[in-house]
Amino acid sequence: MGGDDNWRMSEHRLPSPRVNGALRLADWGLMLAQGPEAAAFLNGQLTQEMLRLGDAQARLAGYCSPKGRLLATFVAWQLAPETIALSCSADLLPATLKRLSMYVLRAKCKLSDASAQWPLYGLAGPSADALLQGALPVGDWARGHLGPAQLVRLPAADGVSRVLWAGPEAPPLPPLQADAWRWLEVQSGVPRIVAATADQFVPQMLNLELVGGVDFKKGCYPGQEVVARSQYRGTIKRRTYLVDSTAPLAAGAEVFNSEDPGQPAGMAVLAASLPDGRHAGLVELKMAALQSGTLHAGSADGPRLSAGALPYMLDTLAA
Prior knowledge:
Blueprint: E1 21-24, E2 28-34, H1 38-43, E3 59-64, E4 70-80, E5 83-89, H2 93-102, E6 110-113, E7 120-124, H3 126-132, E8 143-146, E9 149-157, E10 160-166, H4 178-188, H5 224-232, E11 238-245, E12 254-257, E13 266-273, E14 279-286, E15 295-297, E16 304-307
Antiparallel strand pairs: 1-7, 2-5, 2-6, 3-4, 4-5, 7-10, 8-9, 9-10, 11-14, 11-16, 12-13, 12-15, 13-14, 15-16
């Protein structure tokens, strides 16, 4: 990725912690789109094809401003006939719901916050695998159900399975620590927009198209021309990388290169810390910033960042 030791991946990188159980995801929320035109309405608003969701597959999708900047990311699935569930970060759900509702107009679609009716849980590890065996197909974004609970298989991280559970009752699993779940979310390389990062990134800056969050064959949506131009005209100059840090990171924190201290080189997208003192994050960066110097959080002399390994290949790398 570059010539500096800062971006040579450590040969002694420690694995993710052993995790097993379930956690109530207080930082996630869920909205519903209901009505005979719900799918058509969402298809005209999101980066993902929504007309053919089907019963067995969920989809990752982005919601962009007219300038192509992500206002939210969703995990979406068909909850029931004429009803689509959209899970996203809880801290931006009210604003996103309000904005989307402004564009419903005469469409036969009703949007609502269903976070209380459909609380979300994160499941991980062998106890989750045993509980859900036969209830959830294999493969990223597979969808299933266990009684009234809705299930979505999220991309695994470091070989640890992850499942999103939406249901009125908590899963019968041992408690999972929040820091362990956040660590796996960061290690998965799948971005999630939060309030601190809304309206900051074109989807490709977050590798969203590489993890299945953008359909370039679908019809128009807000910001579609910007997203398509970035893809087909070779204008992608920023990407998201997995990093280790010498101190805790926070989503929205600016990142600086030591050789260009006067302006930020990127921004933290998601971050996690473990009790053993490890800190990691997904950080969006100018690819040119990887060529020389060192990277630091907050300022040019702040905590130093070093490279981790994403679970997928970037198709555009710094020269």
